[in-house]
Design brief:
- The chain is mainly α.
- Helix 1 runs antiparallel to helix 3, helix 5 crosses helix 6 and helix 5 runs antiparallel to helix 10.
- The longest helix is centred in the last third of the chain and has 59 residues.
- The chain is elongated and about 90 Å long.
- 24% of the residues are buried.
């Protein structure tokens, strides 16, 4: 039994490591080329090769099979593997989370820079490309796609759609498309948008601080509750039962 537990522990640890391991680091200078360049045929995985999450879920199922054993273990292991696959796919990878948070943090500055470039008289496509070159980072990659699409004659909806995955950029996309259709000034809308985004970030940070205070107090309450029950309620219950018996 101890060998089964050890084997199950090793398999579960391997599954967690495979699921939590991030991809290889990419140098900033190659980030844009890797995003727009198709995968090289010699480096792509075969279609039958399982991804990291599926392999980790399979190892978790094998761990359950080793611990339970028999046909029941096989059934429970298959169910555990399927459940682990679904749960692990809901977890946002660290690289994706870092990229998303950095894009959110850079969005107000990008709006300010773009408004300044437009006020200076530069066209929209040149302004977007200049901001992308100045800003750097993951948001600059998306802005570069926007600028190149506009430069090549794409519509505003096609170009600014590259910013749709960024949280909070929907208002910027709407303002840019409306400005291209109606001819209204985009610089003023971008300035107001940058102020709104900073205000939203401040409100979110304040809410997170309050939530952290509640979460910090919760373990303290969970520690005091058993002590209160053992020191306050249990003696009273014992005394009452002693009198009744």
């Amino acid at each position: 039994m101890s060998r089964q537990v050890m084997a199950a522990g090793c398999l579960a640890g391997a599954a967690l490591l495979l699921a939590a391991a991030g991809g290889p680091a990419v140098r900033p200078g190659r980030r844009l080329r890797l995003l727009i360049r198709p995968a090289v045929a010699g480096r792509t995985r075969p279609p039958w090769w399982p991804d990291r999450i599926r392999l980790g879920a399979g190892l978790a199922g094998v761990a359950v099979l080793v611990v339970v054993g028999g046909w029941a273990g096989l059934t429970v292991g298959v169910l555990a593997g399927l459940a682990a696959d679904r749960l692990l796919r809901r977890i946002e990878p660290r690289a994706v989370r870092d990229r998303r948070l950095r894009e959110i943090a850079e969005l107000p500055l990008a709006a300010d820079l773009l408004a300044a470039a437009l006020r200076a008289g530069a066209p929209v496509d040149r302004s977007v490309l200049a901001v992308a070159e100045t800003l750097g980072g993951p948001l600059a990659d998306r802005l570069g796609r926007v600028g190149r699409t506009l430069e090549l004659g794409g519509t505003a909806a096609e170009a600014w759609a590259h910013l749709n995955p960024v949280t909070g950029a929907d208002r910027l996309v709407t303002a840019a498309i409306r400005s291209s259709n109606s001819g209204t000034a985009l610089a003023g809308a971008l300035t107001r948008l940058a102020d709104d985004l900073r205000s939203d970030r401040g409100i979110a940070a304040e809410a997170a601080t309050r939530r952290a205070g509640v979460l910090i107090v919760l373990p303290l309450g969970l520690c005091f509750l058993p002590a209160f029950i053992l020191a306050g309620l249990v003696p009273v219950i014992v005394a009452v039962l002693g009198d009744l018996l």
